[in-house]
């Protein structure tokens, strides 16, 4: 899926992505591919896979788009 980072709390290591359909998905920094030492920032375009959990959508394999 494609989306953008909507929120990221650096001190906790988690955030939310919004996909093209307007759906939000939770992500954790352990599922984020850090490129050139850059942490997630608001508005960064990403690709990711999604899992449906009992708490909602979870993004995994999150990779920033160049």
What would you say this structure looks like, in words?
By secondary structure, the protein is mostly beta strands. The chain has a five-stranded antiparallel beta sheet, with no helix packed on it. It contains no helices and five strands. The mean pLDDT is 94. It is globular and about 30 Å long. The protein has strands spanning 2-9, 14-19, 24-28, 45-53, 56-64.
Overall average residue pLDDT: 94
Task: Give helix and strand order, one letter per element, not per position.
Answer: EEEEE
By secondary-structure content and strand pairing, the structural class works out as mainly beta
Instruction: Describe the global form.
Output: globular
User: What amount of the residues lies in strands?
Assistant: over 45%
| Order of neighbouring strands in the sheet with most strands | 3-2-1-4-5
Distinct helical segment count: 0
Number of strands: 5
The main pleated sheet reads as:
5 strands, antiparallel
Regions with little confidence, pLDDT below 50 for 5+ residues: none
Radius of gyration: 11 Å
Distance between the termini: 15 Å
């Amino acid at each position: 899926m494609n989306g953008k980072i909507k929120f990221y709390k650096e001190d906790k290591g988690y955030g939310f992505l919004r996909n093209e359909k307007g759906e939000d998905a939770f992500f954790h920094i352990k599922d984020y591919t850090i490129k050139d030492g850059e942490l997630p920032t608001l508005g960064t375009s990403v690709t990711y896979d999604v899992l449906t959990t009992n708490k909602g959508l979870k993004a995994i394999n999150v990779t920033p788009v160049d």
